[in-house]
Amino acid sequence: MGNTFYFGFEPQLMEWLQNFFGETGAGFISHFSALGEESILLFVLGFLYWCYDKQFGIYIGTNAVLGGVLNPLIKNIALRLRPYMVHENIKCFRPVEKSGALDDISAQGYSFPSAHSMNSATVYGSLAGYLRKRLVIIIAIIITLLVGISRVVVGVHYPTDVMTGWAAGIVIVCIVPLVYEKVGEERRSLLNLIFFAVSSIGFFYCKTADYYTAMGVMAGFYLAIEFEKRLVNFEETRKPLEIIIRLVGGAAVYLVLNTALKLPFSNEFLASNTTGAFMVRFIRYTIVVFVMLGAYPMLFKFFKKKEN
């Protein structure tokens, strides 16, 4: 199930790029996609939130979770098939879900707009917008362009997917902070609840795993921020050793929790793309993000007390 629509130049350009770079070149370029993927973006958010500046991390996270949910909401309306699913001369060098079949839409997701492009524009654009330093702005633009171009070269997105993703990310960076500023900190929780409620419409029509992942991240993020503010209130650190310990510890928490929460279920069930599997994914990501951003920082205060 899906739609096919594109401008005539798009598959021609993609074929030319893949022939020009070849399999080796496309394989190398595909690594730039990692800069718009979950692990790298979580590292950036973790460093900012746990170590550098908590409010800066919340600013980035707020924009990122909204972009993360908006993307599959649009995708499951447009239902645009990925280029390699439509054009036999276009190869897929970097599937979204490596363990899933290339033609499995529930696993690989739809094409329009590009989530990687949208995520990179949102996160790196937020970095640039918050810091407002020329070098940071230049680096943010370069990374965002590289991520988007790589998605075209590896065959998983049309150029219009990427350009729309960039545009949507920029809109989020420009508008969302203004909305929160207008509402005020005292009503932030209510606004979060409204955003979650509106985003929940996808439970009625979204049939791809990316939506349930994004909703879990959103729920966990909103709950964690409230929990941390009311019950934890940890302090950031600029000490190199403490930064390393917090980042390594956070990575360990993520890996252990994400693995442990899968253990009660078979691999077949988790990959089944049924309503039950989708809900397990939603709950899993809610728990993982809540623990990482809400509960895990409690250890920072514990070790701080022991030092004193």
Question: What tags apply to this protein structure?
Answer:
308 residues, mainly alpha, 14 helices, 72% helix, globular
SS-based class: mainly alpha
Order of helices and strands: HHHHHHHHHHHHHH
Which shape, going by the Cα principal axes? globular
Distance between the termini: 61 Å
Number of strands: 0
Sheet having the most strands: none
Radius of gyration: 20 Å
Q: How many domains comprise the coordinates? A: 1
**How many distinct helices?**
14
Strand content: under 5%
Q: Unreliable segments (pLDDT under 50, ≥5 consecutive)?
A: none
* Mean pLDDT over all positions: 92
Helix content: over 70%
Overview of the molecule:
With 308 residues, this protein is an all-alpha fold. 72% of the residues lie in helices and 0% in strands. The protein is built from 14 helices and no strands. α1 packs across α7 and α9 packs antiparallel against α10. The protein is globular and about 60 Å long. The termini are far apart. The mean pLDDT is 92.
Can you lay out the helices and strands and say which pair or pack?
Elements: H1 9-29, H2 38-52, H3 54-78, H4 83-86, H5 105-108, H6 115-131, H7 134-153, H8 159-183, H9 188-199, H10 209-232, H11 240-260, H12 267-270, H13 275-295, H14 298-307
Helix pairs in contact: 1-7, 2-3, 2-11, 3-6, 3-8, 3-10, 6-7, 6-8, 7-8, 9-10, 10-13, 11-13
Quick synopsis:
This protein is 72% helix and 0% strand.
